[in-house]
Amino acid sequence: MAASSRYKFKKANTFANTLFTVGLWTITTLVFILIIGLLVYILLKGLPKITPGFLVGLPSEIEAGGGIGPFLFNSAYVLFISLAMSIPVGVGSGVYLAEFAPDNRFTGWIRTCVENLASVPSIVFGLFGYVLFIDVFDIGLTILGAGVTLSLLNLPVITRVTEEAIQAVSPDLREASFALGATEFQTIAKVVIPAALNGIISGISLAACRAFGESALILMAGGTGTSGEMWDFNLLSQGGTLPVHLWYIQSEALVEDAKEIAEKASALLVLITLLITLTIRIPIWIKNRG
Prior knowledge:
- The chain is an all-alpha fold.
- Helices cover about 75% and strands about 0% of the residues.
């Protein structure tokens, strides 16, 4: 009797496990198809209409046929500034927390703060940037303000991902390095970080794609406009980016072809985000396959 009950219980567990697995795969497949379908729809809707003139042309407030050149340039410029500031600090902080920081209440509090900052809505960082660069420093809505504020958004994400990637490295690698006579710095620089590079680069890729598509933060710290010049490296020029321009076109633009501009800008935004991910990840894939 007991054996029969155990058999029925085991059979019920196997059925429940199979049912759960099938359900999970079904939901995952449906979500994946939905996302791919949405991306393909956006790309097919806008990509065929994009011309070189649209990419480098100046926007127009009234006449149809304007481009997005300054906004596209600002997007790349602001992203570069933010990553140039957040990657060294974020990776360095992650390495310190994983390898050097003592295990006490203070470092635990720091980790909690980093995790909380990583989940803070971007509009909060935007408000901080607004207060800092407009109320305190009184420099207005600028590329500099947008880039620095965006780096603050990226910083906790890169820090947390770097720390987790380094902690995931097998202790055997460290012990082998020490056994060969390497110093702690040599072990971290030449063994631990290269072994954790996949995870670190994945975090940077995530932060870069999120930063490129950010609009609320840029709206508060960089503004909605540009200087009106295509290649303006002045850090104190207005810092409107492509996502902000897309929002403006969809909500307040007066031009006749606003819908077409929005479709092309949306497709370009999706395409560039995919290219950023592939550009960062492809070297890792090649290295792993080699």
